[in-house]
What we know:
The structure holds two protein chains of two kinds. Chain A is α+β, with helices and mostly antiparallel strands.
Amino acid sequence: MTEDDLRDLAREIADQVWHRGRLAAIDDHFREDLVAHVPERPAVRGRRAYRELILATRTSFPDLRQEVDLVIAQSGTVVLRSRYLGTQRGEHDGIPPTGRRVEITELLWLRFDGDQVAELWQELNNLTVLDQLGVIPPRQATEFARFRHVLRTVGRLAALKARSVAAQRRGAK
Amino acid sequence: MTADGVLPKPRAEFGAWVCEVFFDRIWNMADPDALDTLDEVAAPDLVFHIGNLPHARTLAEFKATVRLAKQGQPDLVYTANEVIVDGNVVALRLENVGTHLGDFVGVFPPTGRVLRLTALLVVRLDDDGRLAEVWQEGDFLDLLRQAGLVAPAGAGPLRQVGHALKNLVRGKRAGRR
């Protein structure tokens, strides 16, 4: 594939998989033995495991949208610079649904084998996600202020968790 | 190293050039003053976008951030695993490793732990090869977790509080030294 083709293909994959969350598109565009290096966990091995990861992300942030700002390519590799926007409606990183809006920037490195992604590296700063969910104490705060923030956060998360469990029970009835 | 000697650069050399700037000028641990030569290769309106850190946008702010990182991990080593070039844009796939021997981000007292981070870097150059815009992303939260400064993912309330107490005590001890 030429670099122009690769850039177009990467935009198409971004639109289908990360912007719209169409899990079926993963089978078309990723190798079965895909390796995905993503933050906060060991390498995700295999298309099926990657599908589960995308599903989990969409469950936490059902309205997730991706805006691609830059696509560059050279000899089988594509790098995308993007922004994501979404509202936390499900549990994320052990945090019960907060209903807060999150915006995050990402760089993504895709290694293609023909017209399929064989390996990918996703980099983003999860600290900014937790910051926007209000669970990380400000870095410049004193030790004691940080400690108080954790106590307050634990209380707040417990209340959110109770609310989320109650909502699930109502939904189950 | 003067501006006259290094610029302008032919496009074919953009990849090697960005590596040289990154390793010899920015992350040169042996010669901390090399960081100041970044001015020679910066476009006048150079902007940084570092992992959503809004306080590291200008050249001066970026240099302050780099100095802080070097203080926190004085033996920091960056490695480029891959480099690609598309027109006037260069992308690097990076990893770094360093021991937490100084105040981390100027705040967290040393833990002596070895911290590893992977990162991606995208640099847009102007026609002369000057740095015009820089983006870097890496999972800073993972670094704080490796240092034990933030509780692990999914930690329960008890563990969160225990963790916070431990850091409170550690911080107070460091403050007394």
